[in-house]
Amino acid sequence: xxxxxxxxxxxxxxxxxxxxxEEYQTVTSxxxxxxxxxxxxxxxAGDRVxxxxxxxxxxxxxxxxxxxxxxxxxxxxxxxGPSSSxxxxxxxxxxxxxxxxxxxxxxxxLGAN
Amino acid sequence: MSETKTxxxxxxxxxxxxxxxxxxxxxxxxxxxxxxxxxxxxxxxTKAKNACxxxxxxFLQHGIEDHPQAMIEGREVxxxxxxxxxxxxxxxxxxxxxxxxxxxxCEAQRxxxxxxxxxxxxxxxxxxxxxxxxxxxxQGVGESTSTLGEVKNRADLVIYWGGNPAExxxxxxxxxxxxxxxxxxxxxxxxxxxxxxxxxxxxxxPVADQxxxxxxxxxxxxxxxxxxxxxxxxxxxxxxxxxxxxxEVLDELVERMKNCNFGVLFFxxxxxxxxxxxxxxxxxxxxxxxxxxxxxxxxxxVRGHGNVTGADNVVSWQTGYPFGVNFHRGYPRFNxxxxxxxxxxxxxxxxxxxxxxxxxxxxxxxxxIEHLKKIPVISLDAKPTYTSRQARVxxxxxxxxxxxxxxxxxxDDVPITLRPAFDSPFPTDEEVLTGIHTRLKKLRxxxxxxxx
Lengths: 113, 452
Ligand code: SF4
Fold this sequence. Notes:
The complex is a heterodimer of chains A (113) and B (452).
Chain A: E1 2-6, H1 9-17, H2 22-27, E2 30-31, H3 35-41, E3 48-52, E4 57-62, E5 75-79, H4 82-87, E6 103-104, E7 106-111
Parallel strand pairs in A: 1-5, 2-4
Antiparallel strand pairs in A: 1-6, 3-4, 3-7
Chain B: E1 2-5, E2 16-22, E3 34-39, E4 44-49, H1 53-60, E5 70-72, E6 75-76, H2 79-92, E7 96-100, H3 106-119, E8 122-125, H4 132-141, H5 148-154, E9 157-161, H6 165-168, H7 172-177, E10 193-198, E11 210-213, H8 219-230, H9 239-243, H10 247-259, E12 262-267, H11 269-272, H12 277-291, E13 296-301, H13 308-319, E14 325-326, E15 333-334, H14 341-346, E16 352-356, H15 360-363, H16 366-372, E17 377-381, H17 386-390, E18 393-396, E19 407-409, E20 415-417, H18 429-451
Parallel strand pairs in B: 7-8, 7-16, 9-10, 9-12, 10-11, 12-13, 16-17, 17-18
Antiparallel strand pairs in B: 1-2, 2-3, 3-4, 5-6, 5-18, 8-14, 14-15, 19-20
Helix pairs in contact in B: 2-18, 3-13, 3-18, 4-12, 8-10, 8-12
Iron/sulfur cluster is lined by residues 24, 26-27, 29-31, 51-52, 54-55, 169-171 of chain B.
């Protein structure tokens, strides 16, 4: 599946409270997928999920499903933070910029929280 | 303008100060129309009129933390001792790097460049991991540009590509680009057509008249197809299969772009952080240039941090290059991929790091973070972060725009002066950097004397 890290309002406001605080850590380790994708994977909001790629793996929580028209099938959104860093490759193809969006990841369901 | 209201008769009333025309430095919009109500007894901002949700959090959640000014390996030390240690680390390092700077005023950024010039270090800013690829593209393709004021007063076609300002820059639409009435846009939003191009339907979509969904990783192909159509060339009949956008939608967009009075392409990290990086930004800048054969068209990156644009400006006017600058040979050299921080850390080149107002330990790729853990780090930040937690020397500094003045550049390269709201017990990053710089000059002079 394709993982798209990005900014979100909650990530922005929790960042102001402090990155070492619980709210920021929760926001940046919660993913979003659309309804169909979650159904296909047998996931519900609150379930634990392992995302992995050649660079690393992280455990995150599944957030509320997004409408199908809002997020394409097979796409995962996550607010930027330590979890997305864990999966980010450091090769920048000579540009200085690591591939920070559209990362290909495997998804494994770990069951309810 | 600010005014302090200290009621003398009623001693119990809070000591309130109103700061008018204050500036929010949370994002690159750098809105300078804030009206802050400050409780001087509690050292807190209680109201931030005109601020968006992010700006309100920035101001209202800001308090004076109970935290030491300086620490060495987690132990509280006097500020002077921490500056001595920071200078020693930078002086003894063979490959010291400096990174961050996008949440510091220009005055501090200037000292950071001077430090690197002195120690023959490497200076890079957070630009390298946001619009660095656009910086590379500007050099290759050029930039047809304008201020946000011109957009407000003139733009009748506003296109956002790969960005979600509703969540990252909430007042971009309302203060500069969509809703405000302008000199030649008397009816505000009614006189503008707004297009959003993205891979997903973001919370910015309701503002747009049209949402165009591009397939992930196909921005370059879509931009190149638009360039061809603007130039009157034919394109691949399979364009819809390749990009997810039909020929009809493309033709309509091209006509709209060619026939507007003043068009603007705002672009975000959906272009720079994906496959193609600077080629994507370059294609968009070239499209804006092509459109100038038909009408007036400009392109602007939507910049993230409050003074990331200042960092580009200061590093450029001091070294000739915007980011990723190396002084090892005694003069500045620029080479993204070689002198950019992710690469320097992932390759294991750096042997000491000065991290200013940034938290690479929480947002860099894993391999870069692993190297950062192996070398001495000096951090300057206004809040405890993952980076400050692992730093050898950690300075807690005052927050720019809230506790300190100075200059920042808005995302359209317009400099703005800050009006602080209340004092902080913490030093400014300019003071800390100047202290380190002064010590480094002495260490180097002593070193030369010994050598002679
Ligand atoms: S748009 Fe940005 S600068 Fe303006 S108030 Fe919101 S966070 Fe602050």
